[in-house]
Specification:
single chain, about 120 residues, alpha+beta, 4-stranded antiparallel beta sheet, two-stranded antiparallel sheet, 3 helices, 6 strands, elongated, binds zinc ion, DUF8062
Length: about 120
Amino acid sequence: MSDRTDDADETHPHDVDDTPTVTCSRCDHEWDLAYELDDLEVGNQSFEQFAIDHMRHTGHFPDGVSPWVVSCRRCPEGDEFLSSHPARRWAETHARHTRHTVEIEHVDEETKVVAPD
Ligand SMILES: [Zn+2]
Ligand SMILES: [Zn+2]
């Protein structure tokens, strides 16, 4: 028989406190991502989802996130991304549409410059 429902204990981390938390020093706040997990059911993407939501609401990422920062050299346009692909896509699109030169910055990378053709 496989219709046991009493194996919920396996999901309770008694030994390791691995409840995902996220902090934001700019907001001086800490959140427990376990709630996010329940609400959003996005699994281990919860941190990324939280970071994106936080960015939308506050304009900055929480601690522990090293965003790819895209900024235009010629106008105030810019954005922040959690991975390089959308950052690069944004930069290339902006450069193509406006003929502006755009910089992509990340803590682990050299600054890239995307110039219009
Ligand atoms: Zn914040
Ligand atoms: Zn621009």
